[in-house]
Amino acid sequence: MKILLVRLREIGDVVFTTPAVRALRSRFPGARLAYLVEPAAAPVVADNPHIDEMITAPRSRGIGGLAADLALGRRLRADRYDLAIDFHGGPRASLLTWLSGAPRRIGYDVSGRAWMYTERVARPRELRRRHSVENQWDLLTPLGIAPPERSADAVEMHVDAAVVASVGERLARAGVVSGDKLIVVHVSAGNPFRRWPLDHFVAVARALLARDPHRRVIVTSGPSERDAAARVVEASGALACGEFSLAELRALVDRAALYIGGDSGPLHIAATSRVPIVGLFGPTLPERSAPWRDPRLPVASIDAGSLPCRPCDQRVCAPGDFRCLTRIAPEVVVAAAERILSSEALYDGS
Q1: Which residue, 186, 233, 238, is CA-closest to 216?
Q2: Rg value, the chain, Cα
């Protein structure tokens, strides 16, 4: 049996499919699983042991992009998949799923595209207080797979040993020694609706460093926030370790005592490890996108509370001041971090 999985676009959403990938491998142990993903999120599943083949679909606009997708569709059809599951549901993902020609195609019952699937699963349009892992897992229901449980169906990301060694060498060159407590602070986000103010990050880093001389704060960011990360490092006394790829970030958090960051891809990369997490949620709801992992692993999800404009579709900030993020005070984040760092009951995996 050959199964094609499709999940385009965001890093976090691809992370959220990994429990379903593992469940499919368990349900169909002899199947050949292929995963179609865009390049930015490819590292999430590149070393996944449950996947036999990863296929990347670069995004291109215009006639050239359509021609590339049609060529990819012909390749998928030639591979003769028996089953295709579209975890995304967007126009491009549904088209590629249909072009695969798989006789059984499972997707969401989305207006205008539902005809591309042979089996359709309901997906309400409103932003529900239900986790994205569960929303995507709904597509496994026609296959007789039971609903997920956090303790048994956590997200996962595997990293090559060479990457782990490389990150270890970088930390050593930065002066990190045995006994240091690493705190990873990620200042980047994919859009301004999820970007906490820069001076708040500086305040948090300073406060955490002042409390314990054995702590080392490492500031990470996406390429678009390189300058912002440098300013946080300079203003707070954090370590400058350069940029980290997604695979390197995953290896880095394995060495950390704590991860702090907003609701973006790196937060969910961190969730695939055992590192304690403080997540900052603005327009999104923790019920929908908080780290999906074993409940015994420490997680603090911080938000500004109930606001009439929250959650939103992240296209226009109605009040104009991004209050869902700016009202999260650094002191609240520091307090949550200190509670986790001082806990004597951190889950040890036993």
Answers
A1: 238
A2: 21
- Residue 185 shares a structural domain with residue 291: yes
> Closest Cα partner for 191 from 316, 311, 16?
316
Domain count across the chain: 2
* 297 and 201 share one domain: yes
Residue 316 lies in a domain: yes
Give pLDDT tens digits along the chain (350 positions).
999 999 998 899 999 999 999 999 999 999 999 999 999 999 999 999 999 999 999 988 889 889 999 999 999 999 999 999 999 999 999 999 999 999 999 999 999 999 999 999 998 776 678 999 999 999 999 999 999 999 999 999 999 999 999 999 999 999 999 899 999 999 976 677 878 999 999 999 999 999 999 999 999 998 878 888 899 999 999 998 888 999 999 999 999 999 999 999 999 999 999 999 999 999 888 999 999 999 999 999 999 888 999 888 888 998 988 999 999 999 999 999 999 999 754 444 43
Of 143, 177, 205, which closes a domain?
Answer: 143
Measured CA distances, 58 to 8, 55, 120, 248, 326 (Å): 10, 10, 26, 22, 35
Whether 148 maps to a domain, the answer reads no
> Domain ends where: 75, 109, 143?
143
Closest CA to 83 of 97, 53, 103: 103
Question: What's the token pair of residue 317?
Answer: 């900030």
Domain extent at residue 239: 161-341
Which sign does the torsion angle of CA 281, 283, 286, 291 carry?
Answer: negative
